[in-house]
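Morning!

This is the sequence you dropped in the shared folder:
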Amino acid sequence: MSRAFLPPGNSASGATSKSKTSPASLAAKVEFLKRSGYNFPDTRWAAYRNEDLGHRDCGDLKFLAVGPQNTYKVTPERLPDIPDAINWRFVFVGYLDLQTGAIVDHKSRKHE
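The structure's back. Tokens below.
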């Protein structure tokens, strides 16, 4: 089983809250990820954006822990499905910088 998870603001079905990812919502997710049990010193948080233009949650973000101590050692192009969520809509857009809250480094895929 995958060790992907849904940060606060995401339901068990994988759908995010009604609003798109706002700065306040992203800040709350960053704080949650900092305290996560998946956040090892060598973990990078891959950011995935819903790219399905016809979906009500288009533009929303989800994150996946990637690194030597995580289930995913290599960053997948699309967010993997988990038992509670079908994630094919979510495409890799970069890595989350936990210090700034910015999504950066789209082309660099370290740990690979």
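Headline: The radius of gyration is 13 Å.

More detail when I'm at my desk.
O.
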